[in-house]
């Protein structure tokens, strides 16, 4: 009877697992007796903790080595520990730590592009702020991130910045958890690192702290992304980039202005940054005002105050990124006055400073072009109190050589032709003046008539100058160095400016159209001027030129103004829009809150309305679907699509105003019932206050 019991006891003993001296990692750490059940021991399961497993790591022995010098590195201690390991007197050889630490301090090859030919030229402006592992993980998806996302992902805002409320920033920095042991991010060839025990805590590894200074990050963002948006082309020859590279570290006006531009652009993507952007704009303005007081108190300017002028251009052209209705006129007016003063004394400047002054003069030419679209130039406006036409004239004017049609070196704002930029500026200024006098006639009709005649003569002179320019056959003298913006793009922009000037002249001064039409088309002096004979073809031709410029080309900064100009000439002929019993278009929708008889009727009448509306639309389309009308419709669709694309690529707030302006102009055109084209786009813009810097 005892034999079965003894055999059962022996069988039970054989089924017990073989015990080791150590057990699982968790039990060894807690000094508990482990049953070594697999895959997890029952002791850990009963205690509700995760079993550490049974792998055995290698121990680093240092008892036969000399103590290493630990003072050469500063270690960061992690606030949490993954497991309670014993402290060891030594560490892996210093070579491995040096490799890990120095790899994180690699200098970026280029601020604005990693594959440009000028790699390394501006590398000093950017340090990698991510650990080596994070960089390796981020490389495959780098092309999928937008510039704004890239800026946020590398930007830990955990330190306060002097003078700025940090509550505006609520981004969570990307961090690497160093308390979890892992070898996934290390190379298989790193055999020395593989000698670490599996349970080794990596919190003692030296990891360089990321750059947490907001000012540095915003300046870096300007060089990487904003500069290319602010220029027609971007390369080492871009004077905007060269000036910023030279001045940002030595001129407080430039440094604060670059930060303001970056924050203003980012505020359109992250609305919570707007208050901070305004604070930065205020800070930059204070710095600029202080420098202006010093310059104005100096009787002579022996050198060009580059930082001050550059800062004025930065703030003056980017304040509309925060508020689209602000034109930056006070800043640009100060830049104009300062440049005018320096030009009067330019004989005292060195040759290098004269070249620099010439760059700034062209920058002002572009700013004046943007202002001529939206800023009145009549003597009652404060902006024109200076009455300075040519800021480049010195105090001893002489006969200057004729300005070339195509410049030897392209400018990042005026492109390849400063001449056509000047002519377009004069044209827009003249058109605004003329429309102002039409809307606000003086008390003396004779004087108004004489003023109008003088303006017509001036328009005729500008027309002849624009007609005399030829850019389509002009050779591209120099290349831009920008793969996205070959010199041909800038030549096309110059030709587009020429067409834009002619479109504005013929819309504002229709009398000149009669002089250009053949005798059989011109008719009597008071005859209706057909748009399809002159203005519409020019607008369609301008639209085709814009189509040849890719939306992502550097020339995109000039395209909003060109799109607006093209849209002003896309008017349907009055015969297409006049109302008659046969061709009157049905209302697509009733007026808001006024359903009228459209909905309040019987079932048969309701369906009858549907049939009648369909017949009216069919009759209208067959009578008005001319080839000219279809071209205008296609051009309008393209203009809307291009402005949508530019809204995603450029600072969006001014583009939104441009889109609204274009649609409002077309709505006014389409509502016209008279044969004579009485609606002018400048009047539409002024009446609806749809103004911004469109470039």
Automatic annotation (TrEMBL):
Q: Does the keyword Membrane apply?
A: no
**Superkingdom, according to UniProt?**
Eukaryota
Q: Where is this region: Disordered?
A: 1-20, 69-102
Query: Membrane-spanning residues where?
Result: none
Gene3D superfamilies linked to this entry: Zn(2)-C6 fungal-type DNA-binding domain
Query: Which GO terms of the molecular function aspect are on file?
Result: DNA-binding transcription factor activity, RNA polymerase II-specific; transcription cis-regulatory region binding; zinc ion binding
Q: Name one Pfam family in it.
A: Fungal_trans_2
Name one cellular component (GO) term.
Answer: nucleus
Coarsely, its chief localization is nucleus
**Name the UniProt record assigns to this protein:** Transcriptional regulatory
Q: Which organism is it from?
A: Fusarium mexicanum
Per the UniProt record, the lineage of the source organism begins with: Eukaryota, Fungi, Dikarya, Ascomycota, Pezizomycotina
